[in-house]
UniProtKB/TrEMBL annotation:
It is an enzyme of class 6 (ligase). SMART domains: B3_4, B5, FDX-ACB. The lineage of its organism: Bacteria, Bacillati, Bacillota, Bacilli, Lactobacillales. PANTHER family: PHENYLALANINE--TRNA LIGASE BETA SUBUNIT, PHENYLALANYL-TRNA SYNTHETASE BETA CHAIN AND LEUCINE-RICH REPEAT-CONTAINING PROTEIN 47. The keyword Cytoplasm applies. One of its GO terms (molecular function) is phenylalanine-tRNA ligase activity. Mg(2+) binds at D461, D467, E470, E471. Tetramer of two alpha and two beta subunits. Its EC number is 6.1.1.20. It comes from Lacticaseibacillus yichunensis. This is Phenylalanine--tRNA ligase beta subunit. Keywords: Aminoacyl-tRNA synthetase, ATP-binding, Cytoplasm, Ligase, Magnesium, Metal-binding, Nucleotide-binding, Protein biosynthesis, RNA-binding, tRNA-binding. The gene is pheT.
């Protein structure tokens, strides 16, 4: 909320500068984000009066004005504003003045005619279009009251004020009005606010002869009050009122509408004004809308309503969305003669839903959502009627129309001094606490350390002991409370097993030479399903900023490949990247995806640079497989990991890729990027892997045990076999281990050959088998028997030829 420092000083004595006030209030509970001085950087801007006006001799739209600026001789100024006229009181930037945008105004010639300054629009002084009156949106600003020429225009416009930006949290909606802010500042500096509540003069007809009001369900409108002001004249608001509005970020409209906004800013109580003559039956009915009903709001938009909306009707048709926005058909216009004023409290949840549903969030709806002071509803209504009668030269009807009402009663909370000191860790006296409650404007009595506190209705956020303790702490000063160590048992912080393992995974990969990358969680729709470990429905963002970031990722590889392509395009060709992050998988019958933790890598270029004693070495499938096996080995999985060749994955090379299985569950993939995919995405030869970390963390693991060095020697046998090219190494390993016997310790592939001297479609694979007994030395017969069994099994099961 924008708080005017000058207006605040009228309500409470402020003994410090705006900057000091902002710092102090921020430390007592309500943050002040900034202090703005609207006149900062502006200089030599005065009020002037246009004495005469003539057409420019060399232009069809420029005028030559003689302007009295309080000096001995009028200034000649060339102006192109379409609304300039003789006799007007205007804003004048003198020669060598500074206006908005750090622009200096100098003497100049415009098409041969001398111009000594500039006649200004509000926007040229830094006013935003949102607060500048619409009547002057295309031209200069004209004062509607007499001001002596030469007067400081910045002061006349209220620009010498300081504006404090109060960041109001939902629980402190009492400070969404200047009176609430005055109470807050008064409590901070031990100053009591001084409000001028002038009684309203009722000289018109009884309101019951003019209007009737009914609320269908008092849960929708617990309080609904109305007044009527007759014989009003719609005109521009006086300058003092405009100043208060635009310094609070509100656009002035006319004297009636401006009063409703003024009262909202002062009391925090939103009001609405209807044109009495446009209410068809003069029977106000507050009810729920009927599904399909229509209402055109003040912004000119038509809305189809539902039965969750609370509406104000003239007995039959809706004329306003309660607490959100009025209807266009009953707005205040220049022809309005009688005004109906509404002050109410509406159901907060319904107001919030309605405002969001129709995108009509407003200052009024924001306040109704958070709550209003039920003790000020009629006070605000009376002041609005008084101001409208004064500024509009009208007559206030006798009486207030009350369709529903809440009796404003204070909340009583009991609290002890011992409890306060126990929670705050302080030694406050009863006198100190009593003084704080009085500074806050609370009623308080104390006897033997027990306080009975009466909370006024303006502080509806306070209802329990903890609320009172917070108030005492912030007014006393958080920095004044003693610092104490906790007396409870301390729990030593540590990582969970899952967090520890995830961090170890990153360290292992970095130790293996990979660098961490962090890529976008949003990818293009076509990229989302690629490299996926399991089927998933795409999850799209409702309002994506770009097509390349429209869908939640289902894999990590895509992001890494984008990073590879980006770097290669900039001549960085030797890359080894990994990412540990979440993917988003969704089944068809779910609306929200499940988040899973994955880890993935992408490697391209050289793993070893050329040097004087060795050749360069490019990355290949087995480099990447070694990284994966090292990582998986650190998990000490109970169940063996298997690699099954992939032939139907369109993004991976069919001869150099595999699924990684733990038992029967697919937990990852590894392989070379398909040449077609690489070409389409401007990628070099790149090898990737991806693992489901959640599955690995959930898998059973074995304990790490230490074994002594063997006492007895091992025996090795080499075997070379000729098999079909389609036979996998894993299948051969499986046969060897199934038939190797209990003394087989290791099986190692040391040679693969296919080509000359072998039949077409055949290959030769050579293994070294290691045998050892831990209780005695193996005999030749034991080794030969076990080796022969393996040979027979290979010939029988894989149709291998022993070479």
């Amino acid at each position: 909320m924008d708080v005017s420092y000058e207006w605040l000083k009228e309500l409470v004595d402020v003994p410090v500068s705006p900057e000091e006030l902002a710092d102090k209030v921020s430390r007592t509970g309500i943050e002040v984000d900034s202090v703005t001085h609207p006149d900062e950087g502006l200089k030599k801007i005065v009020v002037g009066k246009v004495l005469s006006l003539a057409d420019h001799p060399d232009s069809d739209h420029l005028h030559v004005a003689q302007v009295d600026v309080g000096e001995d001789v009028p200034l000649q100024i060339v102006c192109g504003a379409p609304n300039i006229a003789a006799g007007q009181t205007v804003i004048v930037a003198l020669p060598n003045s500074w206006v908005g945008g750090h622009t200096k105004i100098k003497k100049s010639k415009m098409r041969g005619v001398e111009s000594n300054g500039m006649i200004c629009a509000l926007q040229e002084l830094g006013f935003s279009d949102s607060v500048s009156p619409k009547a002057y949106s295309a031209g200069i600003y004209v004062f509607n009251e007499t001001i002596a020429p030469g007067t400081d225009a910045l002061e006349a416009l209220g620009m010498t004020d300081a504006i404090l930006d109060f960041e109001i949290t939902p629980n402190r909606a009492d400070a969404l009005g200047m009176r609430g802010v005055a109470w807050e500042v008064g409590a901070t500096y031990d100053e009591k606010p001084h409000f001028k509540d002038i009684p309203v003069e009722e000289t018109g007809k009884p309101i019951t002869e003019l209007l009737n009001a009914t609320v269908t369900d008092e849960n929708d409108a617990p309080a609904y009050q109305m007044r009527v002001v007759s014989d009003v004249t719609i005109e521009d608001s006086p300058l003092w009122l405009k100043r208060r509005l635009w310094n609070a970020g509100v656009r002035p409209v006319n004297n009636i509408v401006d009063v409703t906004n003024l009262i909202m800013l002062e009391y925090g109580q939103p009001l609405h004004a209807f044109d009495y003559d446009k209410l068809a039956s003069h029977q106000i009915l507050v009810r729920r809308a009927t599904n399909g009903e229509h209402l055109t709001t003040l912004d000119g938009n038509d809305h189809e309503l539902i039965d969750d909306d609370i509406v104000i009707t003239d007995g039959t048709r809706p004329v306003a969305l309660a607490g959100v926005m009025g209807g266009l058909d009953t707005e205040i216009t220049a022809s309005t003669k009688t005004v109906v004023i509404e002050a109410a409290k509406f159901a907060p949840v319904n107001i919030r839903r309605t405002a969001l549903r129709y995108n009509l969030r407003s200052e009024a709806s924001s306040r109704f959502e958070k709550g209003v002071d039920v003790g000020s509803i009629n006070l605000a209504l009376d002041e609005a009627a008084r101001q409208m009668a004064t500024l509009g030269h009208g007559v206030v009807a006798t009486g207030t129309l009350s369709a529903s009402a809440i009796k404003p009663e204070p909340v009583i909370v009991n609290i002890s001094l011992a409890r306060i000191n126990h929670v705050l860790g302080a030694e406050l006296t009863a006198e100190t606490v009593t003084t704080i409650f009085k500074r806050l404007g609370f009623g308080v009595t104390e006897a033997d350390g027990l306080f009975t506190v009466s909370i006024p209705t303006r502080r509806w956020d306070i209802s329990i002991e903890a609320d009172l303790i917070e108030e005492i702490a912030r007014i006393y000063g958080y920095d004044e409370l003693p610092s104490t160590l906790p007396t409870t048992t301390m729990t030593i912080g540590q990582f969970t097993p899952s967090q520890t393992r995830r961090r170890r995974t990153r360290k292992l990969l970095e130790g293996l030479g990979l660098s961490q990358a962090i890529t976008y969680s949003l990818v293009a729709e076509a990229e989302a399903p690629a490299f996926a470990l399991e089927a998933s429905e795409p999850t799209q963002v409702a309002w994506p900023m770009t097509n390349d970031h429209s869908t939640l990722r289902q894999n990590l590889v895509t992001g890494l490949l984008n990073a590879i392509a980006y770097n290669v395009a900039r001549s960085q060709n030797d890359l080894a990247l990994y990412e540990q992050g979440r993917v988003f998988l969704r089944s068809k019958d779910e609306t929200r995806p499940v988040e899973k933790e994955y880890v993935a890598g992408a490697i391209t270029g050289l793993t070893r640079q050329k040097s004087w004693h060795e050749a360069a070495q490019a990355v290949d499938f087995y480099n990447v497989k070694g990284i994966v096996e090292t990582l998986l080995g650190d998990y000490r999985l109970n169940e063996p990991v298997r690699y099954v060749a992939l032939t139907d994955e369109p993004t991976l090379h069919p001869g150099q890729s595999a699924s990684i299985l733990l038992g029967d569950k697919r937990i990852g993939l590894i392989g070379r990027i398909h040449p077609g995919y690489a070409k389409a995405h401007s990628l070099p030869d790149t090898f990737v892997f991806e693992l489901d970390l959640d599955a690995l963390l959930a898998a059973d693991r074995s304990d790490m045990t230490a074994a002594p060095a063997p006492k007895y020697p091992s025996v090795t046998r080499d075997i070379a076999i000729q098999v079909g090219i389609e036979v996998e190494h894993a299948a051969i390993e499986a046969v060897i281990w199934q038939n190797g016997g209990k003394y087989l310790q290791d099986s190692h592939l040391f040679d693969v050959y296919h080509g000359k001297n072998l039949p077409f479609g055949q290959k030769s694979m050579a293994y070294t088998l290691t045998y050892r007994r831990d209780d005695q030395t193996l005999t030749e017969d034991e080794v030969n028997a076990a080796f022969a069994k393996i040979q027979t099994a290979l010939e029988t099961e894989l149709h291998a030829v022993i070479r």
